[in-house]
Automatic annotation (TrEMBL), chains A, B:
Pfam families: TetR_C_11, TetR_N. Residues 26-86 form the HTH tetR-type domain. Keywords: DNA-binding, Transcription, Transcription regulation. PROSITE patterns: HTH_TETR_2. InterPro entries: Homeodomain-like_sf, HTH-type_TetR-like_transc_reg, HTH_TetR, Tet_transcr_reg_TetR-rel_C_sf, TetR_C. Gene3D superfamilies: Homeodomain-like (1.10.10.60), Tetracycline Repressor, domain 2 (1.10.357.10). Transmembrane segments: none annotated. Residues 17-27 have a biased composition (Low complexity). This is TetR/AcrR family transcriptional regulator. Coiled coil: none annotated. SUPFAM superfamilies: Homeodomain-like, Tetracyclin repressor-like, C-terminal domain. The lineage of its organism: Bacteria, Bacillati, Actinomycetota, Actinomycetes, Kitasatosporales. The keyword Transcription applies. Residues 7-16 have a biased composition (Pro residues).
Length: 214, 214
């Protein structure tokens, strides 16, 4: 898909992630996002180039530079777009089940090296690019925000004390997995996901996450 | 310190990290380690060069290539050397106090951006260099292994159930901090360290880390 600016397009480049143009512009953005993802999966952030993105998206390099500015902008926008999905947290009917499902989602999504390559490269890119770091921060803030109803429902059901810090709970349930995946470089599996979820649940029940505790 | 091989030195380069030669060789290794650390702090892994290490250590580039092979080897050896310190975990007399001290050590060591720069660069380097990743894995495996007596003492004092998975507990106490520092890019502080430690303690007391639970 080679693209030249259409007359109806604004002359100033849209700030990636700040609006969601429909139609061809949205398709271009998705094609660029896909090329960034495959480039990150194949080469990691240090090996990704604007040339690669142009070649694999079919969008001309000039257009990429005009709209996204830099490689950092391309990576940040791919993360922004990833965060615009309709993902919702599990709703199994119990806090134990929901936390276990959340933790297993993390361990399973990183079990397949091919599937894990692009998300891992995003985490790595944040060490080198302030814009990628900010996009990653926003991505996870939104992900964990969406998880908060898991804890709110548990409070309503009487499974968690009122005043439980929902954000802290959903982070704690997956934190031991992220620690091993991205810092200590240790393997993770379903048993570890279940242990992490069970530990977070026990801490919730003991009131370790109630805000009066902090 | 410019160095040329002394007659008494073995002609084969010592595998970095596999032995600890004393005297001048040890001083050279420490000088090279210091240069790697300052380079990582200043430029991060992508900006570190063998030239920088040569200039800042006073060790000739030829010597660096002969002994350490590559930039990856230099970074891995700096991590190996960091792991050869005499660090021991806190021993406050209670599991609550020890876990809190451990978690606070993590939050405090990353509170100062200047002090955090080199360790952060090591974590980032592991995304690009398999040798750095392996050295980082070994470093943290050893660190957490040294922490296990914290839990063993707690079992002896009756503060933790027999069969508590010590490695899982000490990782859980700091995992929410590492998650925020290196993945979600959120701030950490003492209150968060205390919350993480309290959550791990509550999970221990509830038996969430006993191996029969896994």
């Amino acid at each position: 898909m080679n693209e030249s600016p259409a007359p109806s397009e604004p002359t100033t480049p849209p700030a990636p992630g700040s609006r969601r143009p429909g139609g061809r512009t949205a398709r271009t953005r998705a094609a660029v996002r896909d090329a960034v993802l495959s480039g990150l999966a194949e080469h990691g952030y240090p090996g990704l180039t604007v040339e690669y993105v142009a070649e694999h998206s079919g969008v001309h390099k000039t257009t990429l530079y005009r709209r996204w500015g830099t490689l950092e902008g391309l990576v940040a926008d791919a993360l922004d777009l990833a965060g615009e999905d309709t993902w919702t947290p599990p709703d199994t009917g119990s806090l134990a089940g929901d936390l276990r499902a959340l933790a297993r989602e993390v361990s399973e999504s990183f079990a397949d090296p091919a599937a894990a390559a692009a998300p891992t490269a995003f985490v790595g890119a944040a060490f080198q690019s302030p814009r990628a770091a900010e996009a990653l921060r926003a991505f996870y803030a939104e992900r964990f925000r969406r998880c908060e109803p898991v804890v709110e429902r548990a409070v309503e059901r009487g499974e968690a004390p009122p005043g439980t810090d929902a954000g802290a709970v959903v982070r704690a349930a997956s934190a031991p997995l992220f620690l091993r995946l991205f810092v200590t470089r240790e393997p993770v599996d379903t048993a570890l996901a279940d242990q992490s979820a069970a530990a977070a649940l026990a801490a919730v029940e003991a009131g370790a996450f109630t805000t009066s505790n902090g």
